[in-house]
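Example 3.
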Amino acid sequence: MSLKPNPESKKKFGPATRLVHAGRDPSEQHGFVNTPIYRGSTVLFPTYDDLQHRRGRYTYGTHGTPTSDALAEAWSEIAGAAGTVATPSGLAALSIGLMAAVSAGDHLLVTDSAYRPTRIFCDEVLKRFGVETTYYDPLIGAGIAKLMRDNTRAVLVEAPGSLTFEMQDVPAIAEAAHARDACVIMDNTWATPLLFPPHERGVDIAVEAGTKYLSGGSDLLLGLTSANARYWPALNRTYHQFSVCAGPEDMFLAMRGLRTMGLRLREHGRQGLEIARWLQGRPEVLRVLHPALPEDPGHAIWKRDFAGASGLFGVILRPVPEKAVAAMLDGLELFGMGFSWGGFESLCIPFDCTPFRTATRWAPGGPGLRFHIGLEDVEDLKTDLAAGFTRLRKAAGDI
Ligand SMILES: *Cc1c(COP(=O)(O)O)cnc(C)c1O
């Protein structure tokens, strides 16, 4: 085997091969398989003239290292992007993507189903700098054209929606946005580029919370922002102006996770769908929010645009008192309660979007639960949940 990949052969490889080989060149690492962690601030220049002209591949720790280059190169190849930057969290990746696209006096359209901290960033930070945000119905599709103003510079999409899992018609929204020369920014954390290739579908700037499936182990914080050729110069400049570079150890761990991400995602998706179907059959469940289920209102779009599902979905329970939900969740043996997701372990949290929706009303008809299905034996997960439902019914006075 040649230690040096042939750059011309890259295109013909499938996604699994790309995950294994992207951003890796053992011939530059003395034959070692992985690019190591470069820790460093100062980079020495050999001569006065080199320093004055900032000559050399690396010039300072925040401007890039072999570790950050390896991750960025790998992600750009996997996402089909012109360039990628790595940030210390998913939220930082989102904020940098937004800052690269909008300026004072601009108008921004954000889906009402966006990740809550994205809303807070728009409502509090962008507002202070003179950017006005309007929230829109996630199901708007091509109808977004009616909300576009002369100063609408960017449209933020997220599919499926955070907590509520509505599917968005991203290509239709992108077409309408591009007709007015607005930038399309997407939070693509749920699908990753393996299940939804963002730039191929019209997204200009795509964000991935690497904290989730790149890690796969609930052990790191990282964000990736990628851009197409049109927006890459602005994104790269903004990133360096804010200097929000990710830590070298987290970047190394993200690359380690990347190599097995396809395999893990497939299993999270398969087990998640099995649990989702099982939950559909439970009498305590009113509705399952999972776009890969044929009964889901977003199923047709999911089927058209997505190559699969990850392991995160929601459930609406039939109305029960809050103490019944607490009794169910408190006694779970395998499902943990906590924020974030994407690790090997299953999680379950309650959610309620009613207090912060502004463009649409969230009235699902019962309490909401969000599940992340991990890599445990699926029968053990069902047993854990079945016992939880028994506690729920007892606490509700049902049995
Ligand atoms: C977790 C998450 C983020 C933010 O990632 P952090 O690394 O926790 O900042 C952004 N978007 C979505 C959809 C997420 O689930």
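Residues 89-91, 115, 162, 187, 189, 209, 211-212, 221, 223, 340 surround pyridoxal-5'-phosphate (CB under 6 Å). The domain at 7-258 is CATH 3.40.640.10 (Aspartate Aminotransferase; domain 2).
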